[in-house]
Amino acid sequence: MVHAVAADLDLDDLGFRPDEESNSIAWLLWHIARVQDDHIAGAAGSAQVWTEAGWCDRFGLPFEPSAHGYGQTPAEAALVVADAALLRGYHDAVHQKTVEFLQGLDAESLDRVVDRSFDPPVTLGVRLVSILSDNLQHAGQAAYLGGLALRRAH
C-alpha cells in the first residue's frame, strides 16, 4: 500500500494536510515504517534499520533518532518532509527486516512476552497484530489523503 499511495505524489502532495491539525501523507508513511521498525527491532533484540542503515541521516528530521511519531504534536508532524523515493526506500528496508524476522518464528514464539510495561504483558503475537493494525489504518489514511491531494491539484 505504501508504494501505491506514494506512486503519483510529488513532494507537495506528500506534504498535503487538509488543515493544521492533520498529519501529512509523508508523516503517515514515515510513521508506518518507524513504528514497525521500532517494534520489530524490540521484539528481535536487534538494532533499528532507521539508525543502523543510516535512514535517520538520510531523512534529516529535527527529532531524536528514537522518535517514531507517537505523541508528536501537529506542528512536529508537519516537519516530516520526504519524497516518495525516500519514503519507499525506508519502508522497503524495514519490510525486508520484518519478513526475515517473521520467517524465523514458530507458533511457540508468538507466546513470548516482549513488553512487560502493560498489564497484561504484551506477547509477540499481540505485538505483531498491533503493528499490522496500525500500519493498515495509517496506510488507509494516507491513501485517502492522497486522493484529496490529487483532487485539489486539479
Structural write-up:
The chain has 154 residues and is mainly alpha-helical. The chain contains eight helices and two strands, in the order H-H-H-H-H-H-H-E-E-H. It has helices spanning 2-6, 11-14, 25-44, 49-52, 55-59, 74-77, 84-103, 124-153, and strands at residues 113-115, 122-123. It has a two-stranded antiparallel sheet with strand order 1-2. It is elongated, with a radius of gyration of 16 Å. It starts with a helix and ends with a helix. 32% of the residues are buried.
What's the topology here?
Layout: H1 2-6, H2 11-14, H3 25-44, H4 49-52, H5 55-59, H6 74-77, H7 84-103, E1 113-115, E2 122-123, H8 124-153
Antiparallel strand pairs: 1-2
State the end-to-end CA separation.
23 Å
- Percent in helix: 55-70%
Count of DSSP strands: 2
The shape is elongated
The strand order across the widest sheet is: 1-2
- Given helix and strand content, the structural type is mainly alpha
How many domain units?
A: 1
Order of helices and strands: HHHHHHHEEH
Average pLDDT value? 95
Largest sheet: 2 strands, antiparallel
Task: Please report which band the strand proportion falls in: under 5%, 5-15%, 15-25%, 25-35%, 35-45% or over 45%.
Answer: under 5%
Task: Evaluate the radius of gyration.
Answer: 16 Å
DSSP helix count?
Answer: 8
CATH superfamily: dinb family like domain
Q: Regions with pLDDT < 50 over 5+ consecutive residues?
A: none
CATH level-two architecture: Up-down Bundle
CATH class category label? Mainly Alpha
CATH fold naming: Four Helix Bundle (Hemerythrin (Met), subunit A)
